[in-house]
Every structure is written in structure tokens, then in C-alpha cells.
Design goal:
Helix content: 25-40%
Number of domains: 1
Structural class: alpha+beta
């Protein structure tokens, strides 16, 4: 990639962000079944390449770090100490990363945090966001090595592989 970011590049990125906000206001998070995606999910699959291009541009603008994207939009992994505590890390429709932690036991609780794409109203923790994307990759590798700890595979064995970015199916 060219490491020189021009003003017209910045204007194009702003226009693309505005378009994505206008045509995908709910972001990713539909509850449809992976085997029969709704029109919103099919639409998101079509705009995923635009989102990836925008994220790559923003990464270049932030210092040239090329993001390696996970195969799935949401990765879950059971914890080691209880049968139902788990960690989930995912990407919403505009590339923000969310982290959800669920404890197991008699009094279940959940905590959620989100780290935004740099330059889109949030984005004050770009290195943390990139590290969470790296965590998604590590969790995918762990889940491939030991599928018995893959939260999504245990929750939905037939559809776990369909949570892919850009419509690709995870292996």
C-alpha cells in the first residue's frame, strides 16, 4: 500500500463511512439462522469488502499496520475453569470490536466493552482494538485445535462456520 494518505483519500473514507452508516444502521447482529440469512445479512455480506477496504485504509493512516482479519465475525471460547463461562470477541458492522465476558456458576453475569474504529466518533484505543482482533485469530486457532471449547460450535453445531466476514465460510 502507498503510505502517503491524501486529502482526497480522507474525503473518500468519510463518504464511505457515511454511506455505511446510512445503509447499515443496525450494524451486524441479526438473529436470523445462518442457513437462511435474511436480506439484511445478505446485504452485509455484500458490503463487507467495503468495510475491509476502509479498515485497511484506516490502518495505513494509523501507521501502516496491516490488519489480518479473522474468518468469523464473532469468536467464542469456553473458559478453563467452568463449563459455561466463556469469552466472546466480535466485529460489528462498522469494524468496531466488542468483547463479552460471561462467568459461569450459580450467579451468571456478563460484561461487555467496545473499541471503535479510529476516526469514526470513537477510536481512542486503536492498539487495543488491533490486539482484540489478534485475540480473535488466536481463539480461532485454539478452537480449530480443540473444537470442544468452541462456544459457537457447541451452541449451534451446524451453523458455527457461517459467521464469516464477507460471506466466506469458515473451514
Amino acid at each position: 500500500m502507498n503510505s502517503m494518505v491524501t486529502n482526497s483519500d480522507s474525503q473518500l473514507a468519510q463518504a464511505l463511512k457515511a454511506w455505511l452508516v446510512k445503509y447499515d444502521p443496525e450494524e451486524f447482529g441479526c438473529a436470523c439462522m445462518p442457513e437462511a440469512p435474511c436480506s439484511t445479512c445478505r446485504w452485509r455480506d455484500r458490503i463487507a469488502p467495503l468495510q475491509k477496504a476502509l479498515a485497511a485504509w484506516e490502518a495505513e493512516k494509523a501507521g501502516g499496520y496491516e490488519i489480518v482479519w479473522p474468518k468469523a465475525r464473532d469468536v467464542g471460547r469456553l473458559e478453563d475453569m467452568s463449563p459455561d463461562g466463556h469469552l466472546r470477541v466480535g466485529l460489528d458492522g462498522d469494524g468496531d470490536v466488542y468483547l463479552s465476558i460471561y462467568n459461569g456458576g450459580d450467579e451468571p453475569a456478563c460484561a461487555n466493552v467496545e473499541f471503535c474504529v479510529p476516526g469514526s466518533g470513537g477510536g481512542k484505543s486503536s492498539r487495543t482494538r488491533l490486539a482484540l482482533i489478534e485475540l480473535m485469530l488466536a481463539m480461532e486457532a485454539d478452537n480449530a485445535e480443540d473444537p470442544s471449547r468452541d462456544w459457537w460450535a457447541l451452541r449451534n453445531p451446524e451453523g458455527a462456520a457461517s459467521r464469516a466476514v464477507g460471506g466466506e465460510r469458515a473451514p
